[in-house]
């Protein structure tokens, strides 16, 4: 939205991931009228992954992940099947 803050890169990465999963440009997404949070979750995306991506694109940047390390830490439990 043209107002970069700490973590804007993580927001952008989250939006790219959401676009890849949904096939929708960010301009096509709708926001909840009460919270302002993006409504994007298709039913086939796992709840843990959806929660991580949703946190990455929170409207209030203070409620987003602060570092890529925090994102990786959240993703790590989802990779059990790789080990």
Characteristic terms for this protein:
two-stranded antiparallel sheet, 40% helix, Transferase(Phosphotransferase), domain 1, mainly alpha, 2 strands, 83 residues, 3 helices, globular
Give the gist of this structure.
This protein has 83 residues and is mainly α. The protein has helices at 8-22, 47-56, 68-75; strands at 30-31, 38-39. Strands 1-2 form a two-stranded antiparallel sheet.
CATH class: Mainly Alpha
User: What proportion of the residues form beta strands (DSSP E)?
Assistant: under 5%
The largest pleated sheet is described as: 2 strands, antiparallel
CATH superfamily membership, which one?
Transferase(Phosphotransferase) domain 1
Helix content: 25-40%
- Domain tally: 1
Distance between the termini: 39 Å
Q: Which topology does CATH recognise?
A: Transferase(Phosphotransferase), domain 1
> Helical region count?
3
- The whole-number mean of residue pLDDT values reads 90
């Amino acid at each position: 939205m043209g107002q970069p803050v700490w973590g804007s890169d993580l927001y952008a990465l989250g939006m790219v991931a959401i676009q890849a999963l949904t096939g929708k440009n960010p301009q096509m997404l709708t926001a909840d009228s009460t919270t302002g949070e993006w409504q994007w979750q298709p039913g086939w995306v796992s709840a843990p992954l959806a929660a991580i991506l949703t946190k990455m694109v929170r409207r209030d940047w203070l409620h987003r992940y602060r570092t890529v390390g925090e994102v990786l830490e959240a993703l790590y439990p989802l990779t059990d099947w790789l080990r």
